[in-house]
Amino acid sequence: MTLEARPERNTMLLNLGPSHPAMHGTVRIMVELEGERILNSEVEIGYLHRGFEKTCENRTYFNLLPYTDRLNYVSPLINNAGYALAMEKLLGIEAPERAQYIRVLMCELSRISDHLTSVAAMGMECGAFTVFLYMMKAREYIWDVIEFTTGARMTASYIRIGGVRADLHPDYRAALEKAVRETRKVLKDVHGLLDGNKIFLARTKGLGALTPEEAVSYGWTGPCLRSTGVRYDVRKARPYLVYDRMDFDVPLGLNGDNYDRYLVRMMEIEQSLRIVEQAAAALPPRAPIAAGDRPSIDPAEAIRVSRSQRAVGPVRLSPNLEGSEKDVYSGILADDRRWTLPPKEDAYTTMEGLINHFLFFMKGRGIRPPKGEVYFSVEGGNGELGFYIVSDGTDRPYRLHLRAPCFHIVSALERLIKGRYVADVIPTFGSLNMIGGELDR
Amino acid sequence: MGSESLIGDIEKSFPGELVEAFRDGEDLFLVIRPEALLRIMGSLKEPPYSFKLLLDLTCVDFRGDTGAFEMVYHLFSLDANARVRVKVRLPAERSSLESLTDLWRNANWLEREVYDMFGVVFIGHPDLKRILMYDGFEGFPLRKDYPLRRRQPKADTGKTT
Asked: Does residue A311 surpass a pLDDT of 80?
């Protein structure tokens, strides 16, 4: 650290973190104090660096998807979507319409869980523990829907290049409606608990404010930029998936302080709920499962039979493959076997399916995009989440760089807390919603 | 503001500094000479272009291919909803470049990251040091000649594990 206490001015150094209950990941803030006032500070990051970009250069395009889950681990599905869409732009393919609606649905649920977590943690650090519990409860309902669809709560790896891994569960509606209803209730409760709360206001109003010009200069995007009044949302500026068919507003703040960041996130949850409802209503119908009335046969039996004759009945798949049966496949994954896996039934029973399956996973084969580069960004929980991928024509990226919105936001922290009291660090830092996995990569 | 006029304007204002310029779909590419980086970026930031947001700044190690580091800058204009990708090719033996910290504040950390990962030096940067790696880390991990599983001395003891 270069920061040094100056004895002649009677200053003191205080170390916040790297392991501190109010540090959302592992980050160290060294502050130089005169009394309780912060004269200077230095933010040290990198404690959660896993070498994401280096790792990706050594994995195939298909295999590196799970690593993207672990970037912003509160909204992993948006990371999946960002990567998949960047790859689709590079490959020149498009996911089926139903898959696009499912992606929008999942991305917005993730955004809600991201914002809920952020506001919950910020509230808790200001002493509002009830808010934390209410919001975690709502997040559980959201994650129920995500788990129902993807089979995982956080590390979903659900959105794949060319589509999604599995179709929605036939009964997902009930869970979704419950999640939306409960989240609305919690929003109302939290508005009531915090909006006019004296303690909360004292620690958020007018604190950590940034002007729009400064916010742009720091490269802020997402809720933090919008809290300063700048209208920039990737979903509106560069609509991807089917966001151009959704009717939603972009909430803006006025002062760019902690309180506005809280309010913008709260209002964005409401907008995301609106998108979720619209996407669920407009979802193109699922292809009917034709196999319903015929008895299904074991994979081993299917393989044996298909050696001598072609058509066999429906194959009984592993429960892990629920939702990706051949009947629904065309609705969830792009129909181009160079970039997507064949249905499992085909791999079991047809020559072409087997060849496609092997070619997809063979070393040096698989997804090999043309030489070139691509930058594609989506609106993540914290702002513009961009993937910059350079391809040299092999099955591994030559370079993969993530534009992490958090990185830019946290870089302004030193500026935000300068001249404030040491107690202001916690709500200011909380309102930025630092996510270690994304910040340090 | 049309992208063709932007390319024309840059060519006119900075003769000989534009190496390559083309348009690919929505994206606009400019490859410029390293010496002109600060001046061209400065003028891109101001009206009429107003690329006020430095979206991203990174580097690609093409030393094995073209013998150069390629710096990649992504700029965004909030007014025009336009993106531009500016590239600078740095010969491997002279991998230093002017810092953009005077133009954009987030360039501070972004350039530190590139220095940390690739060893590119930014002239005029106020505090150029490692950011994600620790002090005492040897080498630059995102260079292509850095092996995936190379061991490093521990941060504190200086002994290898």
From this structure: no
For chain B, the 3-state helix, strand and coil shares in percent, each to the nearest 5, are: 25, 30, 45
Residue in A230, A398, A403 closest to B78 by CB = A230
- In this prediction, residue A190 carries a pLDDT of 92
CB contact under 8 A, A219 and B54: yes
* Residue B109 domain-assigned (yes or no): no
H helices present in A307-379, as ranges: 326-332, 344-349, 351-361
Domain assignment of residue B123, yes or no: no
Query: Containing domain of residue B65, as a range?
Result: 3-104
Interface A-B, measured as beta-carbon pairs within 8 A, has a size of 83
Would the pTM of this model clear 0.80, i.e. be above it?
yes
Tell me the per-residue pLDDT of A237-276, one tens digit each, with 9 for 90 and over.
889 989 999 999 999 999 889 999 999 999 999 999 999 9
Which one, of B142, B26, B40, B133, lies nearest residue A45 by Cα? B133
So what's the pLDDT on residue B161?
47
**CATH dotted code for A64-285+376-418:** 1.10.645.10
Q: Do A49 and B133 touch (CB under 8 A)?
A: yes
* Residue A42 CA, distance from chain mean position: 28
Q: Is residue B55 included in any domain, yes or no?
A: yes
Contact A217 B132 (CB under 8 A): no
Angle of the A97-125 helix axis to the A258-282 helix axis, nearest 10: 150
The answer to whether residue B134 neighbours chain A at the CB level (below 8 Å) is yes
pLDDT bin (cut points 50, 70, 90) of residue A113 is very high
Among A57, A88, A217, the strongest candidate for a mutation testing the B interface, having the largest count of B CBs within 10 A, is: A217
d(Cα A25, Cα A33) in Å, to the nearest integer?
23
Highest mean pLDDT among A94-103, B40-49, B152-161: A94-103
CATH number at residue B38: 3.30.460.80
Tell me the pLDDT tens digit for each residue of A12-70: 888 887 877 777 778 888 888 888 889 889 898 888 898 899 999 999 999 999 999 98
Q: Which residue of B has its CA nearest to A399?
A: B60
Q: Which of B76, B81, B137, B150 to mutate to test the interface with A (most CBs of A within 10 A)?
A: B76
CA distance A43 to chain B (A): 10
> Residue ranges of the domains in chain A?
64-285+376-418, 290-361
A397, β-bridge pairs = A391
